[in-house]
Amino acid sequence: MIAEFGYGITFASFLVAFYSVVAAVYGATKKSTALVESARRAMLLTFPLISIAALSLIYMLVNDHYEVSFVYEVTSRSMPTYLKITAWWGGQAGSLLFWSFLLSAFASAVTLRKWDRDIEFLPWVIMVCSVTLMFFLGLVVFYENPFTRFWLVAGNVEPHMFQPALATIFTPQDGNGLNPLLRHPGMVIHPPMLYLGFVSYVIPYAFAMAALITGRTDDRWIRLTRRWSLWAWLFLSFGLVLGGRWAYDVLGWGGYWGWDPVEIAAFMPWLTGTAFLHSVMIQEKRGLLKHWNMILVILTYALVIFGTFLTRSGVLSSVHSFANSPIGPLFMAFVSITLVASIALVIYRWPNLRGETEMKSMLSREALFLLNNLLFMSVLVICFWGVIFPLVSELFTGQKVTVGPPFYERATAPIFAALMFLMGVAPLSAWGHSTVKTLGRAMWKSALIALVVTIVLFFTYTKNYIALIGFFLIALVLFVTAQEFWRGARARQKTQGENFFTSLSRLMGRNRRRYGGYIIHISMMLMAIGILGIEIFQKETQGELAQGEELNIAEYTVQYRELASWDDAGKGVNFTRAVVDVYENGIYLGELSPRIDYYFDSQQNMTIPGNRSTFRDDLYILLVDWQPTTAMGATFKIFVNPLVNWLWIGSMLFLIGIIFAAWPDRDPAEETSRRGITRSANQPSAAD
Are the CB atoms for 97 and 10 separated by under 8 Å? Predict the structure, then answer.
């Protein structure tokens, strides 16, 4: 009964979302406040309804209802409770319900805001959110149903939602269990972060469509969705970082980013979202790029749906993607229809989106921001072509051609270098007009220091010219950004008479968006150090060792000591662990224990590396194979990844920068009131 109840609630949610669309559109066209309010309440109702459906599914996951096919596919009795809960998004049907749950939560949250100044937006925001929600709920209800039961029909086990004639419920003794790769803590959090980022971008898109439909094409919709865009970017960025860490920990190839098609599917909306965050500042400051901002937010929404399609259709081979599914054509139809309709709206409102001023200097801040956006779009084009080319090739030639990392790295490396250079130049340019002379005067000191750093690295670290160019650009951006913090704080210190650190903290607090962006720039340069290190200087070796034998790599010596294998019946896992001793230039550093975990339920392995991390490098050791003989020989693969930990340090600072930029400012009215009270308290009374 729980399965039928969960399905019924999901179907009711679909009907409520459908009503919300109809009531919102009809209410807006007939100017009926009552109908629009009814649509808003219907939108609010979807969240508790889908929450009940989700709780029903979680109850069955936790309590081993293996008669439900989804529960059977993603859980087993040996899994701990927390993993059974997170298995909700570990399979295709559950992940679509999870997507719907998040969207209903965000859409409900946005409809609870005060709409006094923007009431004309409300019905159209509801319409866009509800249409998107209807699509995902429709997939759950009609195609990928997580509540389907197993039935025994004429001796055969078949999944059906409702009982076929002369059938009885079939309950397997145990489930298949979650893919071991998805049991890593990073993958427990990674998908929800990506989904949060994907779903959050629906809200700016909904407001953009509302602005186009109503003809209110000023920057009000941007101001209303600024924080939504920042938080969406935070979630998506966090999801990408967690995905990189997961890949580094469990995929066993010594890297963090393999230009996998599904990785790129999440990276593409991040590119357009990043361009959008930069571009909206130009519209707010100068009244420019209104067409461009609309196109960027439409592209971001389309890429969010497209990325979800790539993951769930099974058309691409990836460690991240689900199996083949009939929902692929539906995704493509939905993306196509929404994209065409959105672009048609932009064309219809094109005359109303003209800029309020003109761009007069190619070196002004707005011009450099536009160039920055064009570079992001160049990376997007490369990524998009790399993802769809195998599909196009298969369609026309019958053969699927693989596009590997060398294509992406060679095509995008010069563009990323140009983006780094712009990070160093753009903060020094002025709105409206800048010249080569003014920019040169502002950045020559930072450029000189960066050059000195590069020369020192040439004589002490590397003579690789690509690495030296990268390190020069990193140093340039770091010193320019530090100079901006210094100049701002010193200027405030002189005018306010505060000490330097007080001036700096108050300056940053009053300009969160600007200085949060600077923190993000610093963090990206730290990440770039790690990327340069692992991409250019990584070393690897592999060999089969008997006990007591050694492998040498860089300054390290790895000596194989012992190997043990045992079963943990409670966890349903066989552990095979090697112990190796590590020496650097003859000095003993300690032992590492790479292992392979074999999960009996899913009959799959997970590789856990032995890893020794420092700021200088990672020694990363994998147990590849072993021989259960008297000699206990084992095969190891060893990587030395220089500077890679700067990638993770930069990632943490990156997240801090986004949170700082997105943190709510004090309400201006409250601030004025507080200052008035303070002034009154400081004024002498008549009695004094």
Answer: yes
Contact by Cβ (8 Å): 613, 589: no
> CA 122, CA 119: separation in Å to the nearest integer?
5
Three-state secondary-structure class, residue 553: strand
Give the Cα separation of 229 and 235 in Å (integer). Answer: 10
Would you say 130 and 40 are in contact if contact means Cβ atoms under 8 Å apart?
no
Contact 220, 115 (CB under 8 A): no
Name the residue among 218, 22, 33, 228 with its Cα closest to residue 122.
33
E strand or H helix that includes residue 530: helix 512-537
* 3-class secondary structure per residue, 208-231: HHHHHHHCCCCCHHHHHHHHHHHH
Q: pLDDT per residue over 169-191, tens digit each?
A: 888 988 888 888 878 777 788 88
CB 467 within 8 A of CB 537: yes
Would you say how long the chain is, in residues?
688
The pLDDT score that the predictor gives to residue 451 is 96
- For the chain, give the mean pLDDT: 88
CA–CA dist 186, 583 (Å, integer): 30
Give the Cα separation of 301 and 252 in Å (integer): 33
What 8-state DSSP symbol labels residue 667?
P
C-alpha to C-alpha distance for 484 and 519, rounded to whole angstroms: 11
- How far apart CA 385 and CA 146 sit, in angstroms, is 34
Residue 657 pLDDT more than 50?
A: yes
- Check: CB of residue 594 under 8 Å from CB of residue 623: yes
Task: Give the model's pLDDT for residue 149.
Answer: 92
The answer to whether the CB of 426 falls within 8 A of the CB of 368 is yes
Give how far Cα 607 sits from Cα of 171, 259, 422, Å.
Answer: 32, 20, 40
pTM for the structure as a whole = 0.90
**Helical packing angle, 122-142 and 33-62, nearest 10°:** 30
